[in-house]
Amino acid sequence: MSASEEQPRIWLIRHGETEWSLSGAHTGRTDIPLTENGKRQAKAIGGILSVMNFSLVLTSPMLRALETCRIAGFCDIAKIEPDLHEWDYGIFEGRKTEDIQKNAPNWSIWSSTISGGEALDEVGDRARRVIARATSAGGDTALFAHGHILRILAACWLGLSPDAGRLFALEAGSISILGYERTCRVIQLWNRTVSETSSDED
Where are the alpha helices (DSSP H) in the chain? Predict the structure, then answer.
């Protein structure tokens, strides 16, 4: 086993598909369930993670993350972590980027003021607190959460500013791994999407 494999890793699990993730609507604090396909994704995630022995499992309190965690088989050991809440999008909640850009052509969630919501740096602060908790767990940690908070968390893991999360596309029902190469923090796996029939040849 290499030195990098011996060091604790953080597994990022984005919740399964919802109606809003499918449509592209910004889903922050709106609590909506998984679609049937999202439930199938959660089951497939559970199959992949079943061989893991996590020291810590944390989940966002939102239904879509909790449901993914439960179907994947980790609800008995998971702890709810409020810092894994998705970004609070304020007035942009439920809206699609392309619709917003009809009136504001250069608009981006990564560079705009979030009126009535949460500043990007505040999300970054939450992500760093989760990283600190995970790295003190003494082994691998699994995080069941949401697209933007996990992308920001990955950026913070690498020592980048929170807005670098824009560079890391992350699909619903995916698994990613943050780890080390020797002593350097790296991304070991990113955006591995799953299905009930996932295999190494997918």
Answer: 3-6, 19-23, 36-49, 63-72, 97-100, 120-135, 147-157
Counted residue by residue, the chain has a size of: 202
93-99-103 Cα angle (round to 5): 105
Question: In whole angstroms, what is the distance from residue 197 CA to residue 101 CA?
Answer: 38
Contact 42, 174 (CB under 8 A): no
Q: Residue ranges per domain, the chain? A: 3-193
pTM here?
A: 0.92
Active-site positions read 15, 86
pLDDT of 196 higher than 70? no
For 66, phi and psi rounded to 5 degrees? -60, -40
CATH code of the domain occupying 3-193: 3.40.50.1240
Report how far residue 55's alpha carbon sits from residue 143's, in angstroms, rounded to the nearest whole number.
11
Query: Which residue matches tokens 């894994």?
Result: 84
